[in-house]
């Protein structure tokens, strides 16, 4: 992920910091904690947790959800990132590159994950996980492909999840308390409190919820071109038909979602760009191709624009390649007639394509120009990786099904939840908001508080 750009991660060794051992005592406090739930039978694999998403591709450059963490719960706005698996919030500790949470920094309360726990080994390479003492704190470090990073300690605390069956569950979930962050992009640091990693690693929130028996091992998002959308854990919102599925590639070390190989199509016709492996990354604002694929797209689009009253807008700094028209463009509806659709055809899955109409790879800037939202990944250090970012995922429900090892998508109205009543216009339908408290401060009467062992 990246608060403005790309988001694939790799997990690297981080030497334990003794200074923070003193700052974060390791004993767990029983004071002010909710009572443990009696059972999970009413929730097990039968429902999904749904969150409203806020943000846009341009000009903001990221999408966020609000997690209510702790007891009593406090809100934290986190960037959603399917390109990483570790969730972290800015720690209330001496720090570098501190983010700006809406409410306040997260303050640990004798709730550190210990180094000897199995969960701790999941955030380290097998050869790098050594504990001087079993009671040591569990340090983590996550590095992003855009050279951003976060390091800190793992903690475990209550997080509120509002389920589609009408209840609220508060399991204890492990996440990072980050005290040293580095950022890239034009804005540093961002206004968010951290990152929610949606990847399939064992330390992810998704895997932890599944391990507790609360949901199926499925996560998805639906990002609206009008801004906002929704995020879900579990498979309840997934339609029973109409989804296009392709196989999820498996790697031993990476914890993001990739598929392929795929061939690039331009206006429905094959190109010479083949064998692309694609990473679906909600932490990336734009789509990135390797240099060969990128240059092929630029050539195809540029050649097709000849004689269409568009000229290069070299004075627009918004993105590397922009065009201006005879007058200022106000929306993509003004320009998409000039551009042809792209598509990816998956060669190992018959008749499966990911369609990218012009609005899935173009933006209109504040200068009234149209810009190409596909960038050269090799130029920014992604080497041969190809990333499908938010701009190409708009107005699609995208599902990462880790149980069936497949990635799916379908055109969708991301301004409202699927299967909801259609008699109300505007934001999400009121029945969901009223019954689940998704957008308000009130909660349903039914709560379960779950202590994670």
Automatic annotation (TrEMBL):
Residues 63-410 form the Peptidase A1 domain. GO terms for biological process: proteolysis. Residues 1-29 form the signal peptide. The active site is at 81, 281. Keywords: Aspartyl protease, Hydrolase, Protease, Repeat, Signal. GO terms for molecular function: aspartic-type endopeptidase activity. Pfam families: TAXi_C, TAXi_N. Belongs to the peptidase A1 family. This is Aspartic proteinase Asp1. The gene is LOC106764832.
